[in-house]
Amino acid sequence: MTMAQKVELLRTDQKIDQVMGLVLRTGVILAAVIVPFVIITVRRALRGDFVRHRAIARWTLPLWFYVSVTGVIVYLMLYQM
Question: Which DSSP letter does residue 48 get?
């Protein structure tokens, strides 16, 4: 393996680490932030306040999906790579 190939491999590893770090940080932060959103969303739905439920659910659902997907991605990066 030439020195240029080693440098390119190192750069690739650094890029993967940066992406993994970004996904991990955003996933962890949003996982903490999403908890009150979920509680409020479920509470409003159970009380039948569907207008206000819909307003917060528009934010909660995409964030919840993002946290779920990033959790799986982080698991795969940590234990399958």
Answer: T
Per-residue pLDDT tens, the chain, 81 aa: give them. 676 666 566 667 777 788 888 888 999 999 999 999 999 999 999 999 999 999 999 999 999 999 999 889 888 877 876
Give the start-to-end residue ranges of the domains of the chain.
25-80
Distance, in Å, from the CA atom of 80 to the CA atom of 3, rounded to the nearest integer, reads 28
Local structure of 16: helix, strand or coil: helix
Q: How far apart are the first and last CA of the chain?
A: 22
Angle, CA 75 vertex, CA 66 and CA 27 arms, to 5°: 30
d(CA 71, CA 1): 35
